[in-house]
Design brief:
Strand order of the largest sheet: 3-2-12-13-14-15-1-11-8-7-4
Largest sheet: 11 strands, antiparallel
Number of domains: 2
Helix content: 10-25%
Length: 339
């Protein structure tokens, strides 16, 4: 009965008596959601692009029975989200020979840069060698060793296909790549140009409307040196293709998602995740959920009251391919203990 209501409630508009945030937080593990490449919003109905949505079913107390009954379904991340590589946009070309260096055939987002200088974070081996020769770095110099270390980590993350849950940009325009430079002067000048272009791109300086500028802030560019500190966009957490996922570089355990939704979740009935076709509101230019063409429910679970201020939700689907566990903390700003 509850699952049938989920679909019905989700198809309703985001209306109802919804209280604003009173200190709610969701800590979740989620396994099995496939990666999606961020795509253009679909004016072409025959070739829609997709993103994910996290929903909560909230209830209200029935006056006669005193029980909590379903009332409304709300989007917990109003801009949607996606699952993609922790690096964000990147490409791994096929190796021409089995013994070829995979680092030479990896391309990353052109705005994966250092925030203060605009220098590229990742260099292919041939690029790093050319830069070393041009700037006179010794093999044991900190300048060379630090960039070689990041190169190794970037390749490890790309080859292991670690999946992150990130913010979603419906119109992912991509800035053009800028050359490294052939000497110190051109290297520093190109770094400065790259910093200016990427900063302007993230800010949406070339956008014609505010919706475009908001979308640019959600465009995700990863950071191989610190996955939780992306160069742009929002990093919500790690997803695992297996129940436990290891960082291929440090071998530490990865996993877990944290979300602070804009609603009070004290009347939570359950959580569910859907895959939705992109739909841009023509009036506002924002990514919204098309009420006429709803996406499939990928996984769902009912909230179980564990203790005051905490729900536990076991997320499952019929084939047990996508599953996870959520701890939902609510009313965190409400402390009945008085001193």
């Amino acid at each position: 009965m509850w699952r049938s209501f989920v679909l019905a409630a989700a198809c309703s508009a985001l209306v109802g008596c919804i209280e604003s945030n009173h200190g709610s937080r969701i800590e979740m593990t989620l396994v099995g959601i496939p990666a999606l490449q961020a795509g253009l919003t679909s004016a072409d109905a025959d070739n829609p692009k997709r993103h994910y949505e996290l929903w909560a079913t909230l209830g209200q107390v029935d006056e006669q029975s005193g029980e909590l009954v379903p009332d409304v379904a709300v989007r917990l991340l109003p801009d949607g989200f996606t699952a993609q590589s922790v690096l964000g946009r990147h490409r791994r070309d096929p190796l021409p020979t089995p013994d070829a260096d995979p680092a030479e055939y990896l391309s990353v987002d052109p705005c994966m840069i250092e925030r203060d200088t605009g220098e590229r974070i990742f260099y292919k081996p041939s690029e790093l060698q050319a830069l070393q020769d041009a700037l006179g770095w010794a093999d044991d110099s900190p300048e060379y060793l630090d960039r070689a270390r990041v190169q190794t980590r970037t390749v490890a993350l790309a080859l292991n296909s670690l999946i992150a849950l990130t913010s979603y940009a419906a119109r992912p325009d991509v800035p053009e790549s800028i050359d490294i430079g052939t000497d110190r002067a051109s290297w520093e000048a190109n770094n400065a140009e790259r910093l200016a272009k990427c900063t302007a791109f993230f800010a949406g300086d070339d956008c014609a409307d505010e919706a475009c500028r908001r979308d640019r802030k959600k465009y995700f560019v990863g950071n191989p040196d610190a996955m939780t500190d992306p160069r742009n966009g929002i990093f919500y957490g790690m997803l695992g293709e297996e129940a436990e996922t290891q960082d291929p570089y440090s071998h530490g355990m990865l996993g877990g998602i944290e979300v602070s939704p804009p609603y009070d979740l004290k009347n939570l009935i359950g959580l569910f995740v859907t895959a939705e076709d992109d739909f841009i509101d023509p009036a506002t230019g924002d990514l919204v959920v098309d009420p006429e063409h709803r996406g499939a429910v990928l996984t769902s679970g009912e909230a179980r009251d564990v203790m005051r201020g905490l729900y536990r939700v076991e997320m499952r689907n019929d084939r047990r391919i996508i599953y996870g566990t959520a701890s939902v903390y609510y009313s965190l700003d409400d402390d009945p203990v008085q001193f």
